[in-house]
């Protein structure tokens, strides 16, 4: 029988076709929230290309999608699902006989989630790509970094997981809610380039109002200002400052001893380069921990820049149990948090095909 689930999505059934990147991360979050997710792995494949922690909460069945019998089994799983997630290039699922037209004809309420970088149509739709390429064409990559250097790669947080996974999750859940009223499913075309572009809405609005410059490190939250920046401390570690609002800036000045009248010109863009240099010299006089102690309990919007190891030990993160240690490894806890139907830390990801019998029994699928 299905392991006891809990979370706001308990009772929701989702079929996930094995992939890498944003699709599995979206499925992990949905599983954390209680969804019963069956992952269709490739038969005879031992390396699924995804860390086990990111596969947590799912069950696996391995199929050979070149086999007519296994393709039919995949269809029957989709017949009993509320939603499906796939991350192939456009046309691949259709060629397998598992495209949305074929599956919606059998299960009209099915929500069919398609996770790609470029989307289902357009000149680049059938081309290979990765996070860095998708954020490049939206303008987001060019906006991040120092003025005189090349753009800085924001890991794959902005594209794969921000513009990809989160928009796929939003689209799936919105379409599932709608299908329960209309009785009709639909395709959710979740393209990373679309999602990243949507994430830049704020900056396009600032550009339209002529508040934002396209030159890197010249705006109030891209490293151009002195009051929203990262500074090196005496020990080589760094401190982050985000004192945008006037009252927070006043507290920053009070705590850091910024009595120089030059700091009165908070909003004067022409003064920012000089004030950055002044503030950099001041932060270089103490260690990061000394600055943290000085700003403790304040609203100056100052926080240490921590590495992965340090972040696990930070008092706030520990108090909220943001990170969980399991089998000697650290995993971030499920998010967001629900007051009445809390998510659960699901077991690590399965080996391919380890749950075949249980899946078929739970989903009431008979096999020859």
Q: Outline of this structure?
A:
The chain is α/β, with parallel strands linked by helices and 368 residues long. The chain contains 14 helices and eleven strands. It has a six-stranded parallel beta sheet, with helices on both faces. A three-stranded antiparallel beta sheet has the order 7-8-9, covered by helices on one side.
Structure, explained:
The protein has 14 helices and eleven strands. By secondary structure, the chain is an alpha/beta fold. The strands form three sheets. The chain has a six-stranded parallel sheet, sandwiched between helices. Strands 7-8-9 form a three-stranded antiparallel sheet, covered by helices on one side. Helix 1 (22-32) crosses helix 6 (157-182) and helix 6 packs across helix 7 (192-199).
> How far is the N terminus from the C terminus?
20 Å
Q: How is the largest sheet built, in terms of strand order?
A: 3-2-1-4-5-6
Largest sheet: 6 strands, parallel
Number of strands: 11
Low-confidence stretches: none
Shape: elongated
Which class of secondary structure composition applies to the elements?
alpha/beta
**Helical amount:** 25-40%
**How many helices in DSSP terms?**
14
